[in-house]
Amino acid sequence: MNKLTFREKYSYGIGALGKDLAYAIVSTYLMVYFTDAVGLNPAFVGTLFLVARLWDAVNDPAMGMIVDNTRSKFGKFRPWIFIGTVLNAVVIVFLFRKPDLEGLPLYAYFSIMYILWGMTYTIMDIPYWSMIPALTSSKEEREQVAVIPRIFASTAWLIMGTFGLSIVKKLGNGNVVKGYSSFAVVIAVAFIISAIITCLNVKERVETPKNAEKVSFKQTLNIIRKNDQLVVFIGIVLGMNLIMQISGSMAIYYFTYVVGKESLFSVYQAFAGIAEISGLVLLPILTKKIGREDVFKFGSILPIAGFLILFVA
User: Is 0.90 topped by the overall pTM?
Assistant: First the structure.
C-alpha cells in the first residue's frame, strides 16, 4: 500500500481545524453568552450542560454503531463527516442567535439548540476520529497521521481563545449579541469548507470486509459493559471533557470578575494553546525516552497542579 501523500495528511488535518473551531466557540464562549449576553439563569445553564454530557454517554456509542454499520460507495466515514458538519454548522448559527422570545420559551429554545448541537457534533466527530485506521494499515503511519489533526485542533483552540473576544467586539460594534451571532456564522462557514476539503481529498484505503457482521445497539452496549478497561476509558474521557468544559467556561468569568481584567483571558488562552501544541510536538519524543505509561502519569498530574495553582492558590 502506497504511503499517504502530503495532500491527504494535511487535508485530513484541516478537517480538525474547522471542527475544533466549531467546538471551541461553544465550549469557551457559550456559557458566558447565555448568562451575560442573553441573560439566562446560571444555575439553569450549568444543569443544561450537565444533562447534555450525560446524554453523550448514550449518544456517542449509538453514533459509533451507526458508523460501523454504514456501507456506501463513499465509504462509511465521509458521508457522516459531511452530513454532521452541515447540520452542526446550521445549529451553531441558531445557537448563537437570540430569538424574539422571553421566559420559558426562550429557555426551551436554547435547551433544544444545545442538545441538538451536541448530537449533530457527534455525527461528524465520531466518524472523523474513527477514520484514522481506515487511512493506512501501517501502525507507524497511523501514529504519524494522528498527530497532524491534533496540532490543527490545538491551533483552532489557540485562535479562538486568543482572538475570540476581540473578533466578537469587532463584529458586534458595541452589540455583544450581534457580535457572537456574526462570529458563529463565520465559524460555521469555515467548518463546512474544512469538511469539504477533507471529504474530497481523503479516502478510505483500508476497506471493511463486505461480509463483516453488523453490530446492533444492544450488542454495542454489551461489548462496552463486558470490557472493564473500555468502561474506565469512556469514564475518563467523559470526565475529562466535563472538567475541560467547566474550567474553560470558568476562565472567562474568573479573569473578568475576580481578576478584574478581561483582557488577561486572551493571554491565558494564548499560553494554554502554545503549551498544548508544544506538548503534541514533544509527545513522540518523550514516549520513546520514558514510555507511554510514564508520560500519561506525568501528563495527568501537570494539568491538575496548574488548575489548582491558577484557581485555588
Answer: no
Amino acid at 69: N
Other CB atoms within 10 Å distance of the CB of residue 33: 26
Local mean pLDDT, 10-residue blocks, the chain (313 residues): 85 95 94 94 91 83 82 88 96 96 95 95 93 86 86 93 94 94 97 96 76 65 79 76 72 88 89 83 76 71 69 61
Which is nearest to 94 in space by CA: 108, 114, 123?
A: 114
Crossing angle of the two packed helices 104-130 and 78-95, in degrees rounded to 10: 160
Report which of 113, 120, 123, 115 is spatially closest to residue 93, judged by C-alpha positions. Answer: 113
DSSP element (H, E) containing 72: none
**Cell numbers standing for residue 250:** 470558568
CB 263 within 8 A of CB 163: no
Amino acid at 189: V
176-201 vs 139-172: helix crossing angle, rounded to 10: 150
d(CA 267, CA 204): 40
C-beta separation of 21 from 190 below 8 A? yes
> What is the distance between the alpha carbons of residues 26 and 187, in angstroms, rounded to a whole number?
11
Class of residue 205 by CB neighbours under 10 A (exposed 0-12, middle 13-18, buried 19+): middle
